[in-house]
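Instructor's aside before we start: the two examples that follow are unrelated to each other. I chose them only because their records fit on one page, so don't look for a connection. First example below.
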Amino acid sequence: MAIIDNTKPVLVTGATGYVAGWLVKRLLEEGFTVHAAVRDPDNEEKVHHLNGIAKNTTGSIKYFKSDLLNEGSYADAMKNCELVFHTASPFTSEFDDPQKELIEPAVKGTANVLKQANKTQGVKRVVLTSSCAAIYTDAIEVKETPNNILTEEIWNNTASLDYQPYSYSKTLAEKKAWEISKEQQQWDLVTINPSLVMGPPLNPNATTSKSFSLLKQLGDGTFKMGAPKLGVGLVDVRDVAEAHFQAGFTPAAKGRYITSGHNTNFVELGKTLEPKFGDKYPVPTKPLPKWLLFLIGPYVNKNLSRKFIRNNVNVTWKADNSKIKNDLKINFRPLQETMEDSFQVLIDNDII
């Protein structure tokens, strides 16, 4: 049970990231000194929004140049911190070499940060950004679970280097974290396992998240004939940041936390946008037939393999979020609010 000293600085790795930005904002608003570990502190495009937030809050931000693959590169950033939020991780659906571009940075990066926690006196808690991808690969697996619902006890054992390597990287990275955690007694580990994260980015023009490109496709005509009825979980980025914050400062927080507000699918996402944006944008409200996806999917997008379509389209996704609601008192935003706020950012920034 970790009780964190509020006067000490707090480390956030990957501080310019989508989720991390909202977490940094929350910490700054509470008056914390944030040690922001980033690849390039001098990249104004990446850090200007955080500087802007810091100017208007009682907190302060200090940047530290760090690299996931360089052992020891988080030493300065972690100094004097009792609480470490490790959010930095590779997130891409475009890669040539999954081992080199996904697996190694995810696993080595996690090991480097946690081994540094072992060497840094005073660290009491590490909150790791994992993913529901470390729990499952395909929506069809929900049918094989007890009570047909995903829980924190379940681990992904179906992803591989050849199939869904991103999910494989998240699984291996989280397993590595628990392995390192069990070998020491100085700090405890809490993991946040979000489903698909949606919501307004603080730095829209520098956002590369997968959910952001999906959002764009929901409005740019990609799905004007209909969307794949692909079963997913969805959570607001602001709720994910709040989950991290509460996981850091709730002494009794422990283990893994499924962080997912809604059991949904791509067609439902289109429908939430229709009332406000449907007259101006071709948002989908109908499902594409599964047989048609089988025919065209693999040609349209290499990630839409027939196996993926079979296991996820017209399949219900369901996860149990009662643990995070009970332990961390998280209340999830309505789906419509998340989708409308996200889409409005695309419009305001001329991205769509």
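Example two begins here.
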Amino acid sequence: MLRIYLRKLSSMQSVPKNTTMNYAEEFVKFLNGSHSPYHAVENMKSVLLKHGFKELSERDGWNGKIERKGKYFVTRNSSSIIAFCVGGQWKPGNPVAITGAHTDSPTLRIKPISKRTSEKYAEIGVECYGGGIWHSWFDSDLAVAGRVFVRDRSTGDVVSKLVDLNKPLLKIPTLAIHLDRDVNQKFEFNRETQLLPIGGLVKSDQVSSESKSEDTFSSLKSIVERHNEDLIKLIVKELGLESESDIDDFELILYDYAASTLGGLNNEFIFSGRLDNLTSCFTSLHALVLAADTSLDQEHGIRLMASFDHEEIGSSSAQGADSNFLPNILERLTSLKADGTDESNPLSKSFLLETSAKSFFLSSDVAHAVHPNYANKHESQHKPLIGAGPVIKINANQRYMTNSPGLVLVKKLADKANVPLQLFVVANDSPCGSTIGPILASKTGIRTLDLGNPILSMHSIRETGGSADLDLQIKLFKAFFEDYSSLESTIIV
């Protein structure tokens, strides 16, 4: 699916400024090509490159590489990405308008040693990633995607390759009601022993392959010894490798084989996994692409979007929102002079502090739409609707970072862009989730507001979002990128 998505991107002409893109259909294509965070970032890179953004590397110095009116992006671990465009009037100490999202979703990940057999079934050992609604994974057709580390036979280097085995390979079967008469009253299962996908039948004459000779030392068992051989063969075929021994390791996740799609009687819904939070990745990406070509020569700030991995497990990783990824990029940008050369005077640190004090961060993650069958789970005056616009999320205990100055700012932007807004507060007798907003606000001191598009069945293998909400959020983010630097000094705190 990734190759298909990339071919579609390369064949598309740049969208004329007077043409409206069908974002719902484009989002469905994006979802169907982004079955892992690695694929999502690769697809985002492709869109950015198509619109003239240049790739930078954290391994290099950026002296002389950053120019006013320039458009750039940088990735970390191939699963997090930051993209930005530099205003024509930019100088260190000026504000940065930032949107933030995350690329990961609750899923099942293949364990380092996944080979299992039981009652002559071949099973795959999986680990629960994040807080998924795991019962929704039963009886779904499951496929596999991720990245594989392969030895290049010509150079000896180990390189990363994306793989998407987009076919129904695995299944977690439920127990028949005849063997569990109480299943409709209470569905309980053991996540270690009963959330195991089956992948096939074990042949009576099947023996494990050995990829190393007995006199060759290896600190770990070979990839074929640790994993199902038929699965490895599928990966070898998909990547065009010569043999299983070319694979050093992989990071693979399971996903629902059923394609993402528009749904509802009037296509008002999007049915898919990973709406949390590829929704915000998609809307911030397209808003930045639009804003990058609008009045950039008059902009005295920087317009920046960030999408991080590992939000679903707390963000504490080298590529999570709790890492130094965004702070490091801001430090690099505020230590460069307007001509892109290094600002080597003692004021460089002061410029970073000035920029942080003037900047704003829109933390964008999906919100809880009111559920028509469980409306009593919502606070009575705060019931967001699908199709009614972005939801501003508020929590007195700072699980969300919204406060009045931020709300005033976003209201001004939404009024100008003709985007309706909704408000959400969790009921006092319900638990409240959180986002990357509090993490980055406390790490950087940047003013922050939490918002997101409403969806149903959050963290299920199959979620439901709104088609119209995509365009509304893109319009809001575009207004934020274009107008924030001129608005920020008018709201006095």
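The first helix runs from residue 2 to 11.
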